[in-house]
Structures are given as C-alpha cells and as structure tokens.
Amino acid sequence: xxxxxxxxxxxxxxxxxxxxxxxxxxxxxxxxxxxxxxxxxxxxxxxxxxxxxxxxxxxxxxxxxxxxxxxxxxxxxxx
Length: 79
Fold this sequence. Notes:
Largest sheet: 3 strands, antiparallel
Shape: globular
Pfam families: Cupin_2 (PF07883)
Organism: Thalassospira lucentensis
CATH superfamily: Jelly Rolls
InterPro entries: Cupin_2 (IPR013096), RmlC-like_jellyroll (IPR014710), RmlC_Cupin_sf (IPR011051)
CATH topology: Jelly Rolls
Protein name: Cupin domain-containing protein
C-alpha cells in the first residue's frame, strides 16, 4: 500500500489471502482471510501482501465531506 495513515475511521475485511501491516516501531500484524481489522487512524503504517495468492480486501471509510480517507507519507509521494 505504501506508507500512509487514515484521517477517518477505516475498517477492512480480508476476503482472500493475507496482509501484513507494518506499524513501524509498534511492530507488525498479519491479517488472514476471514478476519476484520480496524485500521490505524492518524498513525503511519504500510500493508504488504506477503502471502502466496493475491489478497482481496474490502475497505470501508467512515468519512465526511472534505475528510481525507488516505494520507500518503509526504517523503514517499512522487510527482
């Protein structure tokens, strides 16, 4: 996913495969098919598909008009 954070509450559900989320100094957590996850809000993290099959994830953003769902880390954003 690249390093990012969420400006609104964000929920995910792993449909297939697995995703490992790197929370930097807070460690890593692996989520498998059939598991739900409350995404880290306002905390930098990166999701990586480190499984053997493509991962499919449903994501729901609980935002509002003008709110940023995904904020990418500035030093990693390219033009």
